Amino acid sequence: MSKPSPTSTGNGAPLRLGLIGFGCVGQGLYDILQKLPDVGFEVRRIAVKNPTKLRPLPADRFEFHADDLLDDPELDVLVEVIDDPNEAFRLVSRALRQGRNVVTANKAMVARHLPELIRLQREFGGTLLYEAAVCGSIPVIRTLDSYFGQEPLPSVSGIFNGSSNYVLTGMTTAGADYATVLAEAQAQGFAETDPALDMAAFDPRSKAVILAAHAYGLLLNPDQVLNLGIESISSTDIRFAAERGQKIKVVATLQRLSDGSAAVFVAPQFVGDDSPLYHVEREFNGVVVEAEFAGQHFWRGRGAGGHPTGSAVLADLVALRNGFRYAYPKLNTATVPEPAADLEVEIYLRHAPKDLREKLHLTDVVDELNAPGFSYHYVVGYARLSTLLRHRDDLRRAGTFVARTGPVRTPVGVVQQQAAAELVVE
Question: Domain containing 45: what range?
Fold first, then answer.
């Protein structure tokens, strides 16, 4: 099979797309292209999984074997926007072995298989772009890869999941309970059918892993990255933060430490109004980049929904047409950091059984409530990231809520003086 050109059909005609998946993102992209007929892309074929599902296009527009699109030499670009990361990897890796050009929005697939995806591009000459996989409409991946490709970055942090942020906004501003706002988010298409992907912070963990490759050249196994979510949050926690002039946000932290290593984790965090993340609400995402020479940069944009994410897919299509591909400039340099050795972080811990509190080995406890007449127990102190990761599932099963309240430090108690860490916490 001849290799399709990434930039042209050869006669100035629109690039011919094979669209795999027609859910929220696929429909969003299709709608955008219909409204921009002169943008230069044509959805030639659409492959979906379920032949009985009702869709807003005539039935004859759909087919049900995605591999047929991979075997079609007349398609210039394949756009993969399905929700199954295993099937997505099978299709995308096969396409790259053919030297084809692919755009994907599947963050779990990219995070899990990024080293292999990079190898396949280099070996077979195809191009994979995935801006839509991280933070919806915010162009953070290309910015890190190109604009900040050479500059050291003390930190990249932010709200990477619009679904959980939508829930937190509803609980904070309207006083609604968790279950009610979650159902509302799902009804509006902001949250997955399986809420754990968003609410347990697996989704922002995937995004943090992807950004670590572009910010630091660091290729991580997602299973080794701590992710704590908001499944057990209550109005009690929202009030606790409000009484201190703060809000709770799920924040992904990528931080270069003074020893040259890098810490990457995701957790609910108490955020003060001196942080730009304090004002990021509903389904919006926010990204803060601290650059060594350029200083602080902040982007805010919609992180969920068909049109915002479809817009990012369109941007990748335009980039492909112009011959763009990720350079991964920090991947093969002498300054690639090692993952940080064990660190401690100050946390707020509510409703943890005594045996679980003992397993966490909290130190430097600064605040605790466990008195008769109170319906809950909370404690504020330092815990190791590795211990939290080891007992993450125990915390979820126990209905325990954990939020970051303070800085990262080494286990011996030497606080890492990083400007980015002070960006979102006092």
Answer: 15-129
